[in-house]
Amino acid sequence: MKQEEFENIVPELREVMFSVGRNFFGNENDANDVAQEGLLDLCKYIAQMDVSQKHHALAIRVAKHCCVDIVRKRKKIVPLLRGDVSDYAPPWSNRSSSPEEILEVKELRLAMHEAVDRLKPSERQLFELRQIEGMSLDEIVRQTNIPKSSVKSMISAARKKIFKELKEKMK
Amino acid sequence: MMTQKDTEQLIQKYLDGETSLEEEKQLALEVSRDGAPKEWKLIAEMLGKMTVDEAIFEKMRIEHTKRHLISLWPLIAAACAAILLMVLLAPPKKHDVIVQKIEKVQPEKRERTSYQVEKKTKLLPHNDHKKLFAATKSVFSSKPRAVALPKKRTLSVKVEPQEAQDLNPENINEVAQVEQPRRLTPTEQSQLQFLQQTQSIRVRGEQLIHRVAIINESARSNQYYTDL
Questions:
Q1: Residue B203 above 70 pLDDT?
Q2: Residues B173 and B191 both lie in one domain
Q3: How far apart are CA B20 and CA B51, in angstroms?
Q4: Rounded to whole angstroms, how far apart are CA atoms B193 and B186?
Q5: Which of A56, A57, A71, A58 is nearest to A24 (CA)?
Q6: Which of B153, B98, B72, B161 is nearest to B120 (CA)?
Q7: In chain A, positions 14-53, which contact chain B (CB-CB < 8 Å)?
Q8: Of A81, A80, A105, A107, whose CA–CA distance to A95 is shortest?
Q9: What is the pLDDT, as a whole number, of residue B19?
Q10: Is there a single domain that holds both residue B9 and residue B81?
């Protein structure tokens, strides 16, 4: 998708993300923040977005991620604002305070990108459809016209390759 | 929360490409927990921040809804208890006593009113109609009066071809259109019956109130004389 094509669907996607934010936070200010940050996040995926497809599902996923991210950021300032997010510390949560840990997280992300880049194009496409767009196997089959068993085996191969590479890098 | 063994089995299932989206969300929650093993963090990174954060988002929403409902329970329980207490402990009202007194009074024998439904008038043969019409016409033409007539229904009569030949063409319409008094429809009849019943109930009610007043008055006067 080109930048101009993306700009055409921005108002629609913004509305979707705004409603996710409003449902979660219950106010319009935070919902605006979610929509704003969500659109910035969506810009990273323009290259992977297909013009013929609808991207509401992706926008909703991005908006949900933004909601959790906003809560995570605020928790640093106001502790116990919402008491669930503190139980989780995924690598991108920036919970680690020491410079070594921060460096480790950066290395992990870089290794992940490199591992994905080294995949075969078909494997990479299927892996990203699942990881980024959150598509089910049936949806992937419908979009790519690849048999379900092949989709499963290709996704499995991609995951195993990435996991092996990451493990070796992190040793 | 899953055990470590369950999580590792799920990780293997994920690597084999056998997991559903729901299972992946469950796995995302497990592997991104604070203090999870390093290997699990790799899986979290592979699942992607969107999958993990979506899972966290949904869990937060569910727990928020639960907490909201739990916080409402004491209020609901208190409201129910208050209503129950009000119903049980409220003193009987005055009108309850009056109702009890009224119930003791023997009800009057109810008169049954019967309504005769007008029978369907049989249509007369056409010659008779002609005569009737002629008679009516003579009466009305001799003495024209401005009288408000009741609403009348017009019946159209099928005329057999043989009979039609016998009729004078001038009078066909006049004979065919016979005016009949308006009959009450079943709905109107039931409405009328209902009105009469409500009227009789009202009268009975007034009589009862009057009697109760007399009883009260006499009781009061008896009390007065006993006091004296």
A1: yes
A2: no
A3: 12
A4: 10
A5: A71
A6: B153
A7: 24
A8: A105
A9: 92
A10: yes
Q: Does A55 touch chain B (CB under 8 A)?
A: no
For residues B18 and B66, membership in a common domain is answered with yes
pLDDT above 70 (res A123): yes
Tell whether the model's pLDDT for residue B144 goes beyond 70.
no
Residue B197 · residue B113 · CB < 8 Å: no
Chain A residues 100-159 with CB within 8 Å of chain B: 108-109, 112, 131-132, 134, 136, 151-156, 159
Q: How many CA atoms lie within 13 A of B204 on its CB side?
A: 15
Query: Rounded distance, CA B190 to CA B211, Å?
Result: 31
Distance CA A161, CA B14 (A): 13
- CA A54 from centre of chain: 17
The confidence score (pLDDT) of residue B12 equals 93
pLDDT digits (tens, 9 = 90+) for B70-113: 878 888 889 999 999 888 887 766 555 555 555 555 666 666 66
**Distance, CA of A61 to CA of B57 (rounded, Å):** 10
Q: Do B33 and A92 touch (CB under 8 A)?
A: no
**Number of domains composing chain B:** 3
The pLDDT mean for chain B works out to 75
DSSP 8-state assignment for residue A46: G
Judge: A134–B64 Cβ closer than 8 Å, yes or no: no
Among A residues 60-79, those touching chain B with beta carbons less than 8 Å apart: 61-62, 64-65, 67-69, 71
Mutation to test the B interface, candidates A20, A22, A84, most B Cβ within 10 Å: A84
Q: What is the ipTM of this complex?
A: 0.83
To 5 degrees, how large is the angle CA B41–CA B67–CA A35? Answer: 60
**CB of A64 within 8 A of CB of B57?**
yes
The pLDDT of residue B60: 86
Rounded CA-CA distance A1/A6 in Å is 7
CATH code that applies to domain A91-171: 1.10.10.10
Catalogue the E-assigned strands of B4-161.
Answer: 152-155
Q: Please check whether residues B133 and B63 belong to one and the same domain.
A: no
Domain interval for residue B222: 187-227
Residue B98 within any structural domain of the chain:
no
Exposure b/e, B74-87, CB count within 10 A at least 16 = b: eeeeeeeeeeeeee
